[in-house]
Amino acid sequence: MGSNEQIPPLGVRGLTERDSQYLWHPYTQHKTAAKPIGITKGEGVLLWDENGKEYIDAIASWWVNPYGHSNRYIADAIYKQLTSLEHVLFGGFTHEPAVLLSERLMEILPSNQKKLFFSDNGSTAVEIAIKVALQYYYNKGEKRTKIIAFEDAFHGDTFAAMAASGISFFTEAFRGSLIEVVRIPVPVKGREEESYSALKALAATNEYAGFIFEPLVQGAAGMVMYAPEALDNLVAISKTGGIFTIADEVMTGFGKTGKNFACDYLTAQPDMMCLSKALTGGTIPMAITSFSQELYDGFYNDDVNKALFHGHTFTANPTGCAAALASLDLLQQDKMQQNLLRINKKHLDFKDKMEKHPRVKTARVLGVIFALEIERESESYYGSFRNRLYDFFISKGVILRPVDKVVYILPPYIINDEQLDTVYGIVEEALETIL
Question: Which residues carry this modification: N6-(pyridoxal phosphate)lysine (predicted)?
């Protein structure tokens, strides 16, 4: 029995049983899904369930925990902030954590980003960006009511974010209620010209307010990757048609690609950026949308009706800002930057090995993101093959969430080589076991 095992008193129901009475989980068909696992503790890369079983969190809990669970440095920053100012409304007020965070972020964001708008999660960060693109032209008296996005994109679950997303079963029930979005091919190798041509044709119409994209990596599509040069060309084409570019860095931001932001690989600069997930090190929900001066100026007017009437109760929550500031401290440490390089090298070595495996169709790496596609017919996003893979990984004490036949690893930056080798070994075992 592990030292972290917690035995409930006799007659007390476990977390999993109690959960089923009242809770409704995300992306879950409760009639057919397995019961959720009750987690009681997290530390570093590891999680423990209510029965004492240990898991390696190899996806940083949906990509939000780059510095590990129960990080003491972030926890201390949160505690210190809670003892001075836990929250104050941001309408008509400001505070040191928000101002300091804005100053720190401006040091690492692309140079054209000049204004920040706080919200509470990745979907709302995207929602705000799309609203700003549409209202900018409305304020000017121009009718531009459409958005451009990639095929198989995923940008979130609020209405504009859903509209921009291209994974149909997430949005099918709401098709008639969404803004108009036109999709272009992702400029993966061999489809670059097709993507450019599609965007050029749309840009010539003067009907589109924005083009939103996941820069260099489409996460929910299965870590689909494409080259920075291709995105540079698409940003340039957008500018010719007055189309504002929106970089959804919710997944890729804060080191995932090996740089602070995926946009750091670009020569061009987007007009807007959406940040969340790792922003606070997985501790407190928070998001930021950043804007160029041009966009901000489109709302700066004597006419109050041209303001951006959007807000959230917990906008710029001081405690969340303190967590974000601590997270930035950790990201910028030399040791953490060395960890990014170390994980990337380990991933590349594993990629070289997996590319020779007869059951692997492709393998790809960018920064700390590793993905392999199994040689197999596609089923569905949550098909039976994917579910067998997921269950196998869980049984082995590793948290991985395959997308159809794509297995990806996106670990906390503090994972050690031995833990990475364990994850790699279990992925290899799955290739031999799951048919």
Answer: 277
